[in-house]
Amino acid sequence: MKTHTSAELAAAVKRYEADLWPRGNEAVLASMENTNAVHDWKTMLQSPLFTAGLVRAAKQDEMEVGEVEVVS
Length: 72
Description:
The protein has helices spanning about 5-40, 40-45, 50, 55-60. The chain is an all-alpha fold. The mean pLDDT is about 80.
């Protein structure tokens, strides 16, 4: 196995962090948004989960392009 120099290792860490920081930031922001949503019932009750539900969304996923859902 090749031994790497300090400069090579530093460069590898720098490349890794350049990729890691944006992904980590996105994950933290999504987590914070989710946390705020589930602790704010006014917002949660207006979410697609509560307004449309899971069953309807699942039905739409199963429908093929061009199909029309018949509502009784």
